[in-house]
Amino acid sequence: MTKTLRLIIASWLIIGQSVVLKAQTVAVTTIKDMIAAVTTHNDSAAIEKLYLHTDKPFYTTGDTLRFKAYLFNAAYLRASEKSNIVYVEIANDGNQVILRKMVATTVGLGWGNLVLDEKLFPKGNYTLRAYTNWMRNYDEHYIFQKQFSVSRPDENTLFINSTFNIKEVAGKRRAGVNLRLIKTDQLPVILAGFQLKINQGNKVKYQEKVQTSVDGSISFNYDIPDKTDVNNLVITLQPLSKTINTELYQIPFTTNQANNTDLQFLPEGGSFVAGIPSQVAFKALGKDGRGINISGAIYDSKQREITTFRSSHGGMGTFNLSPQPGETYLAKIKLPDGSYGKPYALPVVNQSGFVLGVNNRLEGDSVEINITVTPDLRQDGSVYYLIGQSRGVGCYVEAIKGTAFPKKISISKKLFPIGIARFTLFNKDKQPLNERIVFIKRENDLNVNINTNKKEYSPRDSTGINIGVYDRGNIPVTASFSVAITDDNQVKTDSLTNNTLLSAMLLTSDIKGYVEEPGYYFPQTFTPAIWQNLDNLLLAQGWVNYDWAAEFQPFKPGPYPPESEFSIKGQVTNIFNKPVEKARVILLSKKPSMVMDTVTNKQGVFHFTNIYPTDTPAYVIQARNKRGKSFNVGIEIAEFKPPFIHPLNNQVIPWYVNIDSSLTQTTKNILTYRNEQEKLTGHNMLKEVKIKGKRVINGSKNLNDDGGSDLSIDQQEMEKAGKATLGDLLQKRVKGFHLGSGKHPYLYFLNDQFLHFIIDGIDIDFSFPGFSNDPADYMRYVKNYLDSYTAEDIKGIEVMKSTKYVSVYTTRFLDPMAIAFDNAFIEITTYSGSGPFLKKTPGVYIYKPIAFAPQKQFYSPKYTVKTDQSFLDTRSTIYWSPNIITAKGKAQFSFYTADKPGTYTLLMDGCDMNGNVISIRQKIVVKQ
């Protein structure tokens, strides 16, 4: 606990006692117990907050994603004392994890690089995630998630702007669809043919051949079938001309129509109470999960208009309502034609209760709390408690007699750290009655100055940056920063959309749900409008599920222990599954070369520490008896089992759909730079010659004489895939692999060919016992293999689907009457080489843990007068450094500008690991 927060708590215990003593002695003990319980539980739980600062918001294929991890204790924003291992992973838009690495942190800080290999990361949308094992004991909300796109634009890439308008025609829903296609030069795609389909999942609901008009548009109407969720419909466009990039384009239906809005109303404090005026927050979401601005009116049960409302930012706003006893209220949204749409019910009106209102003025030095109750609750002897907390730490508490209501309380903001504060009213049984969260605005304790050695720079110019960091008393501060400098011509860094370390730690990590434009709420200078919109956000979206009952109970740790370091832990058991004591266990590694040994304890457990895995780690673990001989025992390793993480709720839109003009221009700039580079260096002056070579899988039982196949996934790719299951590998790498539907819902197919699985030359069907009464038994049987084998077990995978490669397999494994082209085969070669029956070698365990993310230094060229001018410097990331540390409050770094004039954006996140975080944005000008 920081010294400041301890003083806050101590001072309020003293002040609270003096106030409470005027009420009754019993409340003094209760206050002490409540504040102690909240703080003790928080200290024991030690919830962690994690943030990754990345060098760019989006990437191209083959690019490198660079990041720095900041791992804090959530309460005090100091370095977490629980965990020193962070798991970083990237999932595709199907929520399949493509890459997973570990990061070791020191004093809460760590960094690494992730190469976005084109084979693993084709064009598309991805989610970057990060978490610790300890974080898995708590809500998924604490897991860091950030969406980004990977693109590979070329001259034939298309950008698509889409609009949808849904109307009712003769009782049916009809969608008017307009698509406009432009090229990277921003000119329309004229008179081009496409195969258009509308899909719902794997089902094609509509298809036709279409042609763009002279302005690049495709317009048509689509009658939506009954009971169809429009949000699940996707348009696909397949170009019919070779002059256009032949990839498949997907455009999700995005129908942010006012009458289809998801509209929620949240009374301040939690509920409506009859006869007590209340502030009401509302939030309107479109089908894409984003805010949609609306206006409308509130009506009572007699259809009388009571008041109107209008959103002010992000689909959110507030209005005042004085609910009457026995009344019900409805809201209607105003439609574009001036009429009102379907009704939305407001929460019910309670006949008895409390209303907790807050007035948090922008420039005020205190927060005003107003508590109003119905007459029946103003009873002598009843005591209520108001607790104010921040980051889970109790900062304020007061006991209030029932006869004191209505009650107005003024609470100094100095008692709370910067960020979100929560005020909760409890009854005498410690049950929460009302809750309200507000933002406490204070001056940042870190003052950071960034000074450049020039006002403007020229191409390939030396740039020097000086950093000064001081606290509010002008005392130098030691702090750690990460700095990313990107070229605005190639990287769009939106100051509103992008989350930063500051907005993540003080806002988005403390409220539920997706926050649009988090940067909007952290301007350099607050205006009354932004301050009000921030309060609207907290009213409408700030309801965090908080288990107050658990707060007042002894803390019980969850099933996932914290990891202070990477280690290998396991158990040795005999043939009766009993632990073996004093067995010698040897750990061997080739890369890096390592031999370690230990002995098991009474529980048969062994533990290896001080290990740092490389990029593709592999360890052989052997158990030996007292004479040094291997013996018939089993070894089990406590391997990390990754969690299933739900994808973000907001709809993922392909990177080429509905992008703004600035991003289109950015793409054009990237292509221009690439073409200039190729002209200057002479690349691609000859037509590309592709040499196809066969990938040989060592030890494969491939039946074809030349070892041929239609697709081969070799050992190198298996090593990169890490712990991916066989099923995940086939889903990701084998196009057309799927579980059947219709007449064959329990069989696996490759497109329309029935699929057979051969492991080390043995058909897994040979050991299938046959169908029971449940035809799904075969699916479960095959799925067991798909789930149990991982890339660590497999040397390679070969796919045979064409007749020339399938014929010999059909002859060997199928009925003589079987038709070759109706079947496809997948040959799986394992390291054991003994088919699907062999168990692991007794006394030996091959362990392939998750590797640590490499920490390669960012290459920043250095130019001199005689520097070679035969190449074009078109870096998009101009400079990246994950660990700039101030000494006596000062630090400096330097880099050289690239070849193109324009502006650069400097983004710097940092902290002193003592409760203070900061994020800074600054421009650097490069002129010709």
Topology at a glance:
Elements: H1 3-21, H2 25-45, E1 48-54, E2 59-60, E3 64-73, E4 78-79, E5 85-92, E6 97-104, E7 109-115, E8 124-131, E9 144-151, E10 158-169, E11 172-183, E12 193-200, E13 203-211, E14 217-223, E15 233-239, E16 249-252, E17 262-267, E18 272-273, E19 278-285, E20 295-299, E21 305-310, E22 316-321, E23 330-334, E24 340-345, E25 349-350, E26 354-359, E27 366-373, E28 383-390, E29 393-401, E30 407-412, E31 419-426, E32 432-440, E33 447-452, E34 462-470, E35 480-487, H3 501-506, H4 528-541, H5 548-551, E36 568-573, E37 584-589, E38 594-599, E39 605-608, E40 619-624, E41 634-637, H6 661-681, E42 711-713, H7 715-721, H8 726-733, E43 737-739, E44 748-750, E45 753-759, E46 762-763, H9 777-788, E47 794-800, H10 803-813, E48 823-830, E49 844-847, E50 877-885, E51 890-896, E52 902-911, E53 917-926
Parallel strand pairs: 2-9, 18-25, 45-48
Antiparallel strand pairs: 1-3, 3-4, 3-7, 5-6, 5-8, 8-9, 10-11, 11-14, 12-13, 12-15, 15-16, 17-19, 19-22, 20-21, 20-23, 23-24, 26-27, 27-30, 28-29, 28-31, 31-32, 33-34, 34-51, 35-50, 35-52, 36-39, 36-41, 37-38, 37-40, 40-49, 42-47, 43-44, 44-45, 45-46, 47-48, 52-53
What is the compact description of this entry?
This protein has about 950 residues and is mainly β. Helix content is about 15%, strand content about 35%. The strands form 14 sheets. Strands 42, 43, 44, 45, 46, 47 and 48 form a seven-stranded mixed β-sheet that branches. Strands 2-9-8-5-6 form a five-stranded mixed β-sheet, with no helix packed on it.
